[in-house]
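Example for tutorial group B:
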C-alpha cells in the first residue's frame, strides 16, 4: 500500500477536515487554527486599554489591536497561554503606544503568553523607566518598538 499526504483541506458544515495523514485517514479540527482576530476602530480604546488588558489565547487564536493607546502608569498586559514561536501569538499591539510612567515601571507584561509590539513610533516611558516582564515574552523586531530611547527592560 502506498503512503500519501493529503494536502487539500476538505470543508464541511461543522468544521474543517485537514488531511496530514497516511492511507486516507483525516485529522478533524473543530475550528480553524492560527487565526488572528483583528479589532479595528475600537471605540474608546484610550479608555478601555489605558490600564492594560487580560487576553487568554486559546485554540491557536491571537488578538491584534491596531488602535493607538495612551497608557496610564502601572498598566499591565497579561497574556495567558503560551504558543510556539512559529504560531500566532496571543496579543499584538500595532498602534502607537504612548504614556506610561516616565520613571520606574512604565508598564508590565505578565502571563505566560507573548505580547508583540510592531509600531516603530512607540513613545511610552522615559529615560528612567523600564518595562517589567514578569512572565512570558515580549516580542519586537527592533528597539524603536520599545518606546522611549532610555527605556530599560527587566525580566
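The residue assignment follows.
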Amino acid at each position: 500500500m502506498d503512503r500519501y499526504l493529503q494536502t487539500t483541506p476538505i470543508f464541511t458544515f461543522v468544521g474543517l477536515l485537514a488531511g496530514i495523514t497516511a492511507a486516507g485517514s483525516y485529522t478533524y479540527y473543530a475550528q480553524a487554527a492560527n487565526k488572528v482576530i483583528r479589532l479595528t476602530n475600537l471605540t474608546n480604546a484610550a479608555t478601555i486599554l489605558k490600564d492594560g488588558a487580560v487576553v487568554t489565547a486559546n485554540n491557536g487564536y491571537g488578538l491584534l489591536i491596531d488602535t493607538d493607546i495612551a497608557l496610564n502608569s502601572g498598566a499591565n498586559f497579561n497574556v495567558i497561554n503560551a504558543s510556539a514561536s512559529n504560531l500566532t501569538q496571543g496579543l499584538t499591539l500595532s498602534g502607537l503606544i504612548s504614556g506610561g510612567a516616565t520613571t520606574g515601571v512604565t508598564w508590565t507584561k505578565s502571563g505566560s503568553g507573548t505580547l508583540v509590539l510592531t509600531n516603530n513610533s512607540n513613545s511610552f516611558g522615559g529615560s528612567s523607566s523600564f518595562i517589567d516582564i514578569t512572565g512570558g515574552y515580549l516580542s519586537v523586531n527592533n528597539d524603536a518598538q520599545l518606546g522611549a530611547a532610555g527605556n530599560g527592560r527587566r525580566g
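The longest strand covers residues 103-110. Compare this with the pattern of hydrophobic and polar residues in the output above.
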